[in-house]
Design a protein that fits this description.
Elements (H helix, E strand, L loop, with lengths): L25 E6 L2 E3 L6 E3 L1 H4 L2 H4 L1 E8 L6 E3 L6 E3 L7 H15 L17 E7 L9 H8 L2 E5 L23 H13 L2 E3 L5 H10 L5 E2 L16 H9 L3 E4 L8 H16 L4 E3 L8 H4 L9 H7 L4 H20 L2
Parallel strand pairs: 1-4, 4-7, 7-8, 8-9, 10-11, 11-12
Antiparallel strand pairs: 2-3, 5-6
Length: 333
């Protein structure tokens, strides 16, 4: 890991910030909570992985369906995920619904409202990783909200009708007019707008259009690795200015992944303040498949942050309180 920060000197939480019902409440803002169900299949939640939430003290996991799963794959030469064909009409919508059905089939307790997040009673919050399934229409967004989706990214590894992605050349130059409509409908429906995987221009468009806090569920600050999924300080600060949260991410930290993960969380704290940082592991994708295959490792996050100098209220905010505050503000709409 390059650019390893010194011990963080995070300041206290702002007045009125959520400080948690317990000092170690943990919410993972972006997971897939399981494994691939077959060759080329997306990560999907499994009962045995979800069963590790309770013993590890995980109060909620945001579990995401992947609409573009049928049309993306890892390039054998570059090792990067990319689109390899265009989807058939309706294919991304079918993939979204099938993946949500697969998550529901594991029988988790779903959290539809902030009050459903209760210490010691693990819950799953449904999310969708990209608006590909909307295919330019807002009615499907209403349908997703009705079936319990509470957080949604605009893009994943495919440029769609809402905006551009970090890992491919820009097509739209930022958030599209349809993307603005999607932001407004998300605000009205009480769905958290998530800018993970968005280019900076697209993310700034979301922040400008949203009347509610914006989430960037899994991303780290840029360093000298040049990773295309890491974001600038300006990007992170603009998300924070909406009252939003940026999630520290473990999925691509191949060099000393656990300590690098904690380092990146602390870099975010230094950049945007402790009230705007959370945990978004993307487990079990990438390096997390080996380092964080289930939720048991999450139990070590509070202790790791304490060892680096954070106070109990700061740890509580990062581990779950900040995301819950964002969820509350979103559902208040």
């Amino acid at each position: 890991m390059r650019n390893r920060p010194r011990r963080c000197k995070a300041g206290g939480l702002p007045s009125g910030a959520w400080q948690g019902p317990t000092p170690c409440m943990i919410v993972d803002m972006h997971t897939h909570a399981g494994r691939a169900s077959g060759t080329g299949a997306p990560w999907t939640a499994t009962p045995e992985v979800l069963a590790t939430m309770g013993p590890a003290g995980i109060d909620a996991a945001v579990v995401a369906a992947i609409p573009d799963a049928p049309v993306i794959r890892r390039n054998a030469a570059t090792r990067r995920i990319e689109q390899f064909r265009d989807p058939r009409p309706g294919e991304c919508w079918e993939a979204t619904c099938a993946h949500l059905d697969a998550i529901a089939s594991t029988g988790p307790r779903l959290a539809l409202e902030p009050a459903d997040i209760r210490p010691g009673d693990p819950a799953v919050v449904l999310a969708v990783e990209g608006c590909d399934g909307l295919e330019g229409g807002l009615d499907r967004l209403d349908a997703l909200a009705a079936r319990g989706v509470r957080s949604m990214q605009f893009v994943h590894y495919r440029v769609n009708e809402t905006g551009d992605i970090q890992t491919a050349p820009p097509v739209h130059g930022g958030l599209t007019a349809f993307g603005v409509d999607v932001v407004r409908r998300m605000n009205a429906l009480g769905i958290i707008p998530d800018v993970a995987h968005c280019t900076e221009d697209t993310a700034l468009g979301v922040c400008a259009a949203s009347t509610r806090p914006v989430l960037c569920s899994h991303a780290n600050l840029q360093d000298d690795s040049g990773h295309p999924r890491f974001i600038s300080i300006d990007y992170a600060r603009r998300v924070a200015e909406t009252g939003g949260v940026v999630g520290g991410w473990i999925a691509v930290l191949w060099d000393d992944p656990w300590n690098s993960f904690i380092d990146h969380i602390l870099r975010l704290v230094d950049a945007v303040g402790v009230a705007h940082v959370g945990i978004g592991t993307d487990m079990p994708a990438g390096v997390a498949e080996k380092v964080m295959p289930d939720f048991r490792t999450h139990a070590g996050i509070p202790a790791a942050l304490a060892a680096r100098g954070l106070a109990p209220d700061e740890i509580a905010a990062i581990c779950g309180g900040n995301w819950l505050r964002l969820f509350q503000a979103t559902r208040a709409a």
